[in-house]
Design a protein that fits this description.
The two termini are 34 Å apart. This protein is 54% helix and 18% strand. It has 13 helices and 12 strands.
């Protein structure tokens, strides 16, 4: 280890770098660009992952949404184009047939209505729901509470409204909880106000009322507009969707191959596509970054080979004066490690600076799915250590070339 602190060794390294200044700078830039690219791409990938996680928010991502449309195939005496509705009987059948697969199931009914409070009004969506909805699509409450089981049992005329609805219907600073608003000319007591989510949201500004209340007021009997189903952990969400649709087709006398009778969205499947994209992007990031790093390290090897060739006579003189092959080898390797270290540190610094600037530019922009683009410190250390190892290994080639030259032949070199 003495050679690390030998001033003569560092003076020779400095002299070699100064003599080939332009070539050295270009080489350092090559390695710098590799680790810079790796840091920025990994940070961007992490930022996109954070953005998608925020987009999904507290929504149960392993969910399937199902509704009815119209048939496209005649079946059991029914003509093509038949329309039908989901029912509460369907809900009970699905719960009993798939107890291990289904974790949460929320039947829903929705319509648009005029909401009125004092002299203010607005046209909004009204949704009849069960409390289980809050577990599938979590609401951030500003005031009060969400619907509960007592509301369902008593078919209470209560409602939970959005923050925008509260702003439009109430005076600024007014206390909404306990106040009454009219929906379809019927008074409902406001029991909660929720904040409109910036994440994935299928409802927008909606006034939630108990499902049983909706049933009585709008005379829907056992009809259900659509349902939200969340699977248990470990369930194959795509297979569950197929099984549920096949069961519902049997219940409503729909041809098993009918593609139009039911509409569905498999959120788990769609999120799987996003996850696959993110994994592919991370793989590509590592591939591009490491390939660029290796190219830069090879560039260092090339410049050292040229340097050794140019210093053949000098090496011969040093050998003739008693320098050992080990000392010459150590100097060449140390020069390689020194260049890769400087380039690596600069690349990490510049990459971190770019990520900071990107974060500052997009942190207040909800339209760009890039949040906190950072790279884990252990990954930085691993990349830096890999760079040093590669720099050492690549330095072995010119170091070996320098030591195999015989002193007498080196002295004859012109």
């Amino acid at each position: 280890m003495k050679f690390l602190f030998d001033s003569d060794t560092w003076q020779e390294i400095y002299g070699s770098i100064r003599k080939n200044r332009i070539r050295t700078i270009i080489t350092i830039i090559g390695v710098l660009w590799g680790i810079f690219l790796l840091v920025v791409l990994l940070g961007a990938a992490r930022g996109m992952e954070n953005g998608f996680n925020k987009l999904f928010g507290n929504f149960a991502t392993n969910s399937v949404f199902v509704w009815t449309q119209s048939t496209d195939t005649p079946f059991k005496g029914f003509q093509e184009g038949r329309r039908f509705r989901l029912t509460m009987n369907d809900i009970e059948v699905l719960k009993s047939e798939y107890p291990n697969e289904i974790k949460l199931l929320a039947p829903r009914n929705q319509t648009n209505n005029l909401l009125v409070h004092n002299f203010k009004s607005g046209d909004f969506r009204v949704s009849g729901d069960y409390p289980v909805l809050d577990q599938i699509q979590k609401k951030q409450l500003l005031y009060g509470r969400f619907l509960n089981e007592n509301d369902i049992i008593s078919a209470a005329k209560v409602t939970v409204i959005s923050e925008d609805m509260y702003i439009q219907l109430f005076d600024k600073g007014a206390q909404p909880i306990g106040e009454y608003i009219k929906i379809n000319s019927i008074n409902y007591k406001v029991v909660g106000v929720y904040k409109r989510s910036n994440t994935i949201d299928f409802d927008g500004d909606t006034a939630y009322i108990p499902f049983t209340t909706y049933k009585k007021v709008y005379n829907t009997a056992n009809r259900v507009d659509w349902m939200m189903i969340t699977a248990n952990e470990g369930t194959n969400i795509e297979q569950m969707e197929k099984d549920i649709l096949l069961t519902l087709k049997g219940l409503h006398k729909v041809h098993p191959e009918d593609k139009r009778a039911f509409g569905s969205v498999n959120l788990g499947k769609e999120i799987g596509k996003v996850t696959g994209f993110l994994i592919g992007m991370q793989f590509l990031t590592w591939f591009v970054g490491i390939a660029t790093l290796i190219a830069g390290v090879f560039a260092i090897g090339n410049i050292l080979l040229i340097t050794v060739k140019e210093r053949t006579k000098e090496i011969g003189i040093r050998r003739a004066l008693g320098a050992t092959p080990k000392s010459i080898r150590q100097q060449i390797i140390l020069e390689s490690v020194f260049l890769t270290t400087i380039a690596g540190m600069l690349g990490i610094i510049f990459g971190s600076l770019v990520l900071y600037l990107i974060d500052s530019a997009v942190s207040n922009n909800d339209d760009i799915p890039l949040i906190n683009p950072t790279v884990n410190i252990p990954i930085i250390f691993i990349a830096f250590a890999t760079l040093i190892v590669l720099g050492t290994l690549i330095g072995l080639i010119p170091a070996h070339m320098a030591t195999v030259v015989k002193p007498i032949e080196a002295l004859r070199e012109e």
